Amino acid sequence: TGWSTTFNVGDHATSSLSIPISQAYNFNADEIADYGLIIEAEDTISLFAANYNVNSFDASNVLPVNSLNSDYIIQTYTPTTNAEFVIVATENNTEVEITPTKAMQGGHPAYGTFSVTLQKGQTYLGMSTYGGARGDLSGTFIHALNDKKIAVFNGNVCANVPTQNSYTDHLYEQAIPVNYWGKTFAITNSVGQNYDVVRVTAQRNNTQLRRNGTYLTTLNAQQTYEFQLTDTEGSCYLESSEPVGTYLYIAGALQGNNHEESDPSMIWIAPIEQQAYDVVFSTFQTADISNHYVNIVAPNNSIGNIR
């Protein structure tokens, strides 16, 4: 669009940028638009993006371009209105094949592969046709031809988590390329919540899931399984026989008994195979957020430092 801005950020400090809606928000389903943003820094940064509105908020980490890839299987939650995803091209003449698991706006039927061609910085917004179970796009396969790198963001316009809950919100998280999926996960309950919802999407057929050693189910490729993690459990160890993508959803509720009031939120759970030894992160400061938490899982009685 020609719009640009600059920023400065110090060591272990944060810098926040407000992006004009006219420069980065694609509202129209099945549309290719010039809404991609490229952020460049002189040194290594950790980047987060947030969609914020009155009574609505969710955020995602953002992968650097060199960590992107060409193959994605998305996950969304059963939508109140619509599930959605956005594709951002990093190279010109990027042809992307999309195989949705549910009917999509624009006349694209379930399991009918269609393609879009994007130039560098262009975006494509895909959105389900229906709400409810018929609109959950989990398992949708996205493939960029000729090994071109794309960024994919998945989530929901608005969703109740779980579906029978009366609390609803926008869900938003960057999809992780399938080559970074894993087989082992340490998952923690969110501080102050009665329970969280965990959803697991399979990459391959005959994917067996175990929770703390107990068999849960067997999934075929692109199928999704959901379970709850309660505050009395605190955490769980999830194993799969094949690589899976795992997300935690904070359940929306005024949960009472000294628990936190919350709207739903969507969080990628990195597999243990992708664990990092040094992490720099930030929380968002807004008038609506008063408490900030971090959950830490320490394998093998590890000792670490927080500063």
Record the SSE blueprint.
Elements: H1 21-24, E1 31-33, E2 48-53, E3 56-61, E4 71-73, E5 83-89, E6 94-99, E7 114-118, E8 123-127, E9 141-144, E10 150-160, E11 168-174, E12 182-188, E13 195-202, E14 207-211, E15 214-219, E16 224-230, E17 235-250, E18 253-254, E19 261-262, E20 265-268
Antiparallel strand pairs: 1-8, 2-3, 4-9, 5-8, 5-10, 6-7, 6-9, 10-11, 12-17, 13-16, 13-17, 14-15, 14-17, 17-20, 18-19
Q: How would you concisely characterize the structure shown here?
A:
The chain has one helix at 21-24; strands at 31-33, 48-53, 56-61, 71-73, 83-89, 94-99, 114-118, 123-127, 141-144, 150-160, 168-174, 182-188, 195-202, 207-211, 214-219, 224-230, 235-250, 253-254, 261-262, 265-268. The protein is mainly β and 307 residues long.
